[in-house]
Write a structure and sequence with these properties.
It contains 7 helices and 7 strands. By secondary structure, the protein is α/β, with parallel strands linked by helices. It has a single domain, classed as Divalent-metal-dependent TIM barrel enzymes (TIM Barrel, Alpha-Beta Barrel). The strands form 2 sheets. A 5-stranded parallel beta sheet has the order 1-2-3-4-5. The chain has a two-stranded antiparallel sheet with strand order 6-7. Helix 6 (123-132) links the parallel strand 4 and strand 5. The two termini are 23 Å apart. The mean pLDDT is 94.
């Protein structure tokens, strides 16, 4: 298809099946067996119950796979480090050829089960997140149920942040953010 290395496929490490360490080892073994044309496109995301950021960073140490930080999952399952530290650590797993690091921004649905994504973006929370992470450049993916409505609000807020107003190359195409 002619895409550069910045085109990524985002996955979770998987299930635990009663043996978390064994599951991580199986992931690493299977990742190493992938053709490089596939493995260079894979990124892993922390989840809210089984494989947190620390686990994903361990997998990265083994095979070099970039880590996507999911803010909701991190809020629910973390080692107590501040969010800014988590963003920095995940961003550090990305090489130049991988493109900008990706952060999934999402919030907990107030009345929903633990881990359920919010219906809509909370502008004050999004603003705070951007302010906390001003020293790090990354792409944001929103995991919000009302999709376009929240995307429009996020763009309105992000327009005030110089990181999101410069052109960026993703999948070989230069786009305005």
């Amino acid at each position: 298809m002619g895409f550069d290395r910045s085109c990524k496929v985002q996955i979770h490490v998987g299930g635990v099946y009663g043996d978390k360490i064994g599951s991580m080892r199986r992931f690493v073994k299977r990742f190493r067996a992938l053709d490089p044309s596939i493995s260079r496109r894979i990124v892993i995301e922390n989840d809210e119950r089984l494989f947190g950021l620390e686990d994903c960073l361990s997998v990265h140490e083994e095979v070099g796979v970039p880590v996507v930080l999911d803010t909701l999952h991190y809020a629910l399952f973390n080692n107590g480090d501040p969010l800014i530290s988590a963003v920095r650590r995940a961003a550090a797993t990305w090489m130049k050829d991988d493109g900008l690091p990706i952060v999934d921004f999402s919030l907990q649905e107030e009345q929903g089960r633990k881990g359920r994504h919010a219906l809509t973006i909370v502008p004050s929370e999004f603003r705070t997140f951007l302010l906390q992470t001003t020293s790090i450049d990354f792409d944001i993916m929103l995991e919000i149920k009302d999709k376009e409505r929240s995307a429009i609000e996020a763009i309105r807020i992000a327009r005030k942040d110089p990181r999101f107003m410069k052109p960026v190359t993703r999948c070989g195409k230069v786009t305005e953010r």
